[in-house]
Amino acid sequence: MYNYCFFNSVTVWGGGEKWHLEVATYLHNKGQKVLLIAAPNSPLAEKAKAKGINVQTIKLSNVSFLNPFILLRIARLLKGFKIESLILNSPRDLKCAGLASKLIKSPKVIFRRGSDIPIKDSLLNRFLYQKVVKKVLVNSEATKISLNKNNSQMVPAQKIALVPNGIDTNQFLEGQVSKVYEKQKDEFVLCTLGRLVPQKNHDFLIDVALALKKRELKFKLIIGGSGKLETALRDTAKQKGVLSEVVFAGFIERPKDLYLSGDVFVLSSLWEGFGYVLAEAGLCELPSVAFNISSNAQIIQEGKTGFLVGEGAVDLFSEAIISLAKNDDLKNKMGKRAKRFVENNFEAKNIFEKVEAVIGPD
Questions:
Q1: Res. 327: pLDDT tops 90
Q2: What structural domains and CATH numbers belong to the chain?
Q3: How does 208-242 read in b/e, with b if 16+ C-beta sit within 10 Å?
């Protein structure tokens, strides 16, 4: 039996939190000792408790690493539970728990980097990545390349391990479906899912909606997710005359309820580490249209399971959607290929075994 600690103090639910929960659950179900340290009352903490995982809570800020009492508390937790592998997901957590682990000279530290964003070249980061972190686990080639963009020596090559995200296909698809939206006759439904934050670039999809309306396509755009930009996005949709074509569905508890409401999945993110939503949509037999950036080409096979277009290209994005709307046979064939591709390349059991090989005993 091996002692793992998944440390994630993020208060909202996102891809990193989903990854932590799924890998922690996989190891817990195998009989390994798993501790999760999370933010109080966070979705991650509550979901982990429901699965029977041992959860401890801690509240951190961006300057908590300067507080010796917080570092000592974390160090005591790690030592008390005899943690052998510490898995972290955010820079803030790395600063706090990474430094705490250094105080007790254990456990081994694995940092999971899930975003295609370069590491800031600072003295503290150089210390953390070169002296504290044993392995950096990345989920795509794009994320791997971005690590050292600001400093070619930041993360030594031998420390980097690439394992894509995994999806338990049977578990994801099982159970009843409660559609988020019931399409009307002759209506083509676009759906997207993600926090309403600048990274997800939903303004672009409002522009796409306007272009589709001008082309006289009968459609609905279902935007799943919540966030600080919802009011601004509603105002933009109203200003551009497409509010009646856009549905803000709010937070989606079961993503497949959204995907199975649509005909095509659209993603306008400016960057992604690994687009979970693209893989999930593929499992639901939806072709996708997204930018040809970051790891999107790792999940979308251009012209086979969807379309990849240049960043910000409203006309090309709209044209790809229209080509699917006007050709049911193409849409259905792409959707079936998308499902097979995800099943063959991102099945959770195979992926989690690879993750375990990186974060488990040497």
A1: yes
A2: 3-166+347-359 (3.40.50.2000), 171-345 (3.40.50.2000)
A3: bbbbbbeeebebbbbbbbbeebeeebeebbeebeb
